[in-house]
From TrEMBL:
GO molecular function: L-lactate dehydrogenase (NAD+) activity
Name of the protein described by the UniProt record: L-lactate dehydrogenase
Residues noted as binding beta-D-fructose 1,6-bisphosphate in the record, renumbered to the chain: 169, 184
Catalytic residues in the record: 191 (proton acceptor)
SUPFAM superfamilies: LDH C-terminal domain-like (SSF56327), NAD(P)-binding Rossmann-fold domains (SSF51735)
InterPro entries the UniProt entry points to: L-lactate/malate_DH, L-lactate_DH, L-lactate_DH_AS, Lactate/malate_DH_C, Lactate/malate_DH_N, Lactate_DH/Glyco_Ohase_4_C, NAD(P)-bd_dom_sf
Binding positions (NAD(+)): 29, 50, 55, 95-96, 134-136, 159
Activation/inhibition comment: Allosterically activated by fructose 1,6-bisphosphate (FBP).
Residue span, Lactate/malate dehydrogenase N-terminal domain: 20-158
Record lineage: Bacteria, Bacillati, Actinomycetota, Actinomycetes, Actinomycetales
Amino acid sequence: MPESHAKSLYPATSAGHPSKIAIIGAGAVGTAVAYACAMRGDARSIVLQDINKAKVEAEALDIAHGIQFTPTGSVEGSDDVEIVSGADLVIVTAGAKQKPGQSRLELAESTVALMRNIVPSLQRVAPDARFMFITNPVDVVTYVALKLTGLPRNQVFGSGTVLDTSRLRYLVSLQTGVATQNIHAYVAGEHGDSEVALWSSAEIGNVPVRHWGPTLSGRLFDAELRSEIAQEVIQSAYKIIEGKGATNYAIGLAASNIAGAVLRDESRVLTISTLLEDWEGISDVCMAAPTIVGRPGAGRVLNPPLTLAERDGLTASAQRLRQVARDLGF
């Protein structure tokens, strides 16, 4: 084989740079995100940063010992924010822990104070990164981060209701026996008690939910069943927190799913939390809506058909979130 041909087949170096994810916070959520991203190979390099030096180094080392079994190249941990430098995607999980019975919005004041402290330093070391916030209340935290950084809306977004949407699809799957991957239904609005399940556009395969017919239990997807499922989605986190203290595995997988959409430029439709401007009459608030997610970050926000009740619910959700932000001085 000619030498030039061999070189084209087996390049020694890559023109692009290896992808890097930085995760802020090595608690239950941060470590679950790091583990999920490593398992799925969302980036070549994964770093964890936390003020607890011993814990963050131990968590990273524990995952790193298994990278032979993953597509990821390296996992590191440090208490030094400089480890975040050069990250393509920064995922912020650090924040106060949600206590049993405590709403996400009650966490707002202490969490926003923390964001004032850490966000500027993250922007300093990784100014070109996409920033994804998971810390609750995620919609308020995302809005605050946008204001603190002055970055464009595509660059700063929250995990929104990607997890709630997954919970909704899981519950519809239990009712129908159809795989969750073939259930197309979204939750929008606040990641919390005022969120809205968008039943009017929900489909199983390409069959609208209202036309599905009897479920496995013989019930129909009438207003009563839809309300029960939507309430179970809202209560899911509280039930898990009561039993084990935190939700972490599913949000880890959800965050990895978003990370993959960004770093692989997948143009996926995901209900992330972004700054809305004249979306269904809603402006100047960050909350979840079906959004195209790719390498630029948060792209176009889609406008699914809505009933008047759904629109009213989303407007109320936006007003609630906007008021919290105003009360916190944003």
